[in-house]
Amino acid sequence: MIISRVRGIALAMWPLSLALLAGASWAQDPLLARNLAATCANCHGTAGVAKGEMKTLAGRKEDELLKLLADYRSGAQPATIMHQIAKGYTDEQLKLVVKHFAALPAKP
Ligand code: HEC
After folding, report:
1. Domain count within the chain
2. Domain range for residue 21?
3. Cα 97 to middle of ligand 1, angstroms
4. Residue 108 sits in the same domain as residue 70
5. Per-residue H/E/C for the chain
6. 36 and 23 housed in the same domain
């Protein structure tokens, strides 16, 4: 009786421990920031240096970029597309990607 209950709890916890494991390895992936930043490259240029009218992300302050993204997400800053894009990333992902761009040179 007790054993089957313990087994039930262990089984119920199994997906949770898997999720925790996945989360831990995810946070340690050294290429993650770069891979996330690559999803912005189509529009904001290679390594965050934009051409033409598009805004460059490279070499900018982390705080400034995070604020812009938070405002797109909340709708405080109207946008044609960034309000949708900003919602597609977690807070952790946005922090990582912004840190990555801030560390890159503003000019190639
Ligand atoms: C499909 C094209 C596209 C992609 C992909 C894209 N952006 Fe944007 N981004 C824009 C456009 C267009 C704007 C101008 C605001 C608007 O109209 O949506 C913008 C504006 C911004 C701004 C504000 C810049 C400023 O100085 O005002 C930031 C910050 C930003 N994007 C970050 C990102 C990040 C980070 C990613 C990747 C996670 C990304 N964007 C992916 C098109 C894109």
Report:
1. 2
2. 1-29
3. 12
4. yes
5. CHHHHHHHHHHHHHHHHHHHHHHHHHHCCCCHHHHHHHCCHHHHCHHHCCCCCCCCCCCCCHHHHHHHHHHHHHCCCCCCCHHHHHHCCCHHHHHHHHHHHHCCCCCC
6. no
Contact residues of ligand 1, CB 6 A cut-off = 39-40, 42-44, 55, 57, 65, 68-69, 79-82, 85, 89, 97
The pair of three-digit structure tokens given for residue 37, joined into one six-digit string: 């930043």
The encoded tokens of residue 27 equal 């946070």
For residue 81, report the distance from its CA to the centre of ligand 1, in Å: 7
The CATH number assigned to the domain holding 93 equals 1.10.760.10
Task: Split the chain (108 residues) into runs of 10 and give each run's mean pLDDT.
Answer: 65 59 60 95 96 96 98 97 97 96 92
Q: What distance in angstroms lies between residue 80's CA and the mean position of ligand 1's atoms?
A: 9
Q: How is residue 92 written in tokens?
A: 């952790």
